[in-house]
Amino acid sequence: MPNILSIETSSACCSVCIKTDHLETQLYENNAPNTHGEIIFEFIKTALQESGISKEDLDYIVFGSGPGSFTGLRVGCSVVQGLGYGLKVPIIPISSLRITAQQAFEKLNSKNIVVINDAHMEELYVGEYKCSKNIAVNLKPDYSIHKDEINELVNSFPEDFSFIGNAMHFIEKDLQKKIIYDFAPKANFSFNIAADLILNQKFVPAEQVTINYLSGESQWKRV
Amino acid sequence: MQILGIETSCDETGIALYDDNKNQFIFESLFSQAAKHNLFGGVVPELAARDHINKLLPLIDEEFSSKNIDLKNIDAIAYTKGPGLRGPLMVGTAFAKALAFSLNIPTIPVHHMEAHLIMAKYEADSLLYPFMTLLVSGGHTLLAKVNSPDEYKIIGESIDDAVGEAFDKTAKLLGFKYPGGPEIEKNALKGNLSEIVFPRPMINSQDFNFSFSGLKTAVLYEIKRLKEEKKLDFQKKCDVSLAFQNAAIECLVKKSVNAMQKENCNQLVLSGGVAANKALRKSFKYEIDEKNLFYPDLSRCTDNGAMVAFAASEKLNLQRDHEIKVNPRWSLEEIDHG
Predict the structure, then answer these.
(1) CB of A79 closer than 8 Å to CB of B97
(2) B61 and chain A: CB distance < 8 Å anywhere?
(3) Which of A85, A87, A220 is facing B57, going by the closest CB pair?
(4) Chain A nearest CA to B95, separation (Å)
(5) In CA terms, which of A90, A134, B5, B315 is 20 to 30 Å from B147?
(6) A223 touches chain B (CB under 8 A)
(7) What is the CA radius of gyration of chain A?
(8) DSSP β-ladder status, A112-120 and A161-165
């Protein structure tokens, strides 16, 4: 098992975790919006200390690449780019919705999962996943919808789907679906996905890492 | 030592590697987002931050790879800590900290305006402390006396809009593209001195502060009048540009010259994006002996990474002074953490 540093900053929660061949550190997390920049290096340093490896021993860095909080993602992305480039370590970007789905699978044993998060400005981020060989796999690429479309979307899925995320309050109460409220992605749930991506050589050099915002430039008014 | 400078305070991604032993830049590189923000009529902070993320590391990698420079040659990373747009500043800062952490080297936070005004020192050995500086950009209009690289006295500043902002807004009112400053300058060259005369706000005030919002409003009403009278053709737009530029420049020049007299400074540094305006430079040459007038190379007037790296080097030089000084009664509360 290679030494992996995982960073997830797409929600109000900033979380960092390291996995080596003999241990997984505790999850270092801080659930306070807009403080990622203040705390992330302390988390990385402490996790390195607990893991017993030095930063030069890292083999991969996992980056929860969104969609989610623009500012949080940019703190995470900049840190990952700087570390990856300086240490010459490849980066494994993983959708933050996929990490959330993996979490639901590992913690609650949900097999078919739709992650729906509030994107603000009346939009929602949606990720559709199923569990295959113990890993959350995309049914289709993550996408965004208008918040008014949420009930129609939720209704379109069969009974065996669970709905997870911070946009659950937009769903009508009388829809008979399995709903799990507030499920922020955590860095430690990306390791199994990362192992699969490493096997399939799905990693990139730091200079190619980008954020998946899902929302483009259309919301800004052009002259 | 070699210092990597990173500037991301607004809409330019700038990097440079400065060797302070040789007093030269090993490389300088800049990506301007102006074309993107032109579509929106001004800087959109969120989109600026997005572009910094996409451009900063590729710019750095291109320089280090193509010039075959080992990252381990870098001794420190300087970054713009502020003032500027929060999102864009955050990108440069987080990246600088992470790269420095990975290379086990220190970071040096740099004040954006300080970097602008100190850059003139790089290009002119004859510039000596103390000197007066006029910093004019889209975000700032400031007169300061520079006693040393870490001692500034603000003599005057704009009480409302920055002069560069007034240039940009006038350009927008006239239908010119963003950034408006160079458009006003270009079209003013085709303008005629006409009956259009704009006010020179605060020009006779006893202090050294500036005001540009009244000038901007006067331009707004004049353009409105010309539109209503269906007289706002291209020539009239050029005439308005010239009249506006003359008014703004006269305020800047008069206050600067007065401030120099009051503070007994005979050398003036022009810095910031508006310092690239050739009409402004020409007006100052009428008032100040050319040997006492300094401004960065035109390419370094706008935001860039070179000024960040150089300003950091100047600060380090201060720390490496050879004075043998002790402070027997040094209080814990007097420690300066920068």
Answers:
(1) yes
(2) yes
(3) A85
(4) 5
(5) B5
(6) yes
(7) 17
(8) parallel
ipTM of the complex: 0.96
Q: How many CB atoms lie within 10 A of CB A30?
A: 16
Query: For residues B172 and B36, what is the distance between their CA atoms, to the nearest angstrom?
Result: 15
Any B CB within 8 A of A218 CB: no
> Which residue among B40, B46, B57 places its CB closest to the CB of A221?
B40
- Chain A closest-CA separation from residue B85 CA (Å): 12
Assess B101–A contact: CB distance below 8 Å, yes or no: yes
A94 within 8 A of A194, measured Cβ to Cβ: yes
Q: Is A55 on the interface with B (CB under 8 A)?
A: yes
Strand order in the sheet with A112-120: A135-146, A123-132, A112-120, A161-165, A178-181
Instruction: Report d(CA A62, CA A92) in Å as an integer.
Output: 5
Q: Shortest CB distance from A82 goes to which of B41, B54, B98?
A: B98
CB contact under 8 A, A82 and B99: yes
DSSP state of A22: S
Nearest-by-Cβ selection for A223 from B41, B95, B100: B41
Asked if A167 contacts A124 with a C-beta cutoff of 8 angstroms, the reply is yes
Is the Cα torsion angle A29, A34, A36, A39 positive or negative in sign?
A: negative
Instruction: Write the pLDDT tens digit of every residue in B230-278.
Output: 999 999 999 999 999 999 999 999 999 999 999 999 999 999 889 999 9
Tens of pLDDT, residue by residue over A87-123, are 999 999 999 999 999 999 999 988 999 999 999 889 9
Specify burial of residue B228 (Cβ count, 10 A radius: 0-12, 13-18, 19+): exposed
Nearest C-alpha of chain B: how many angstroms from A153? 29
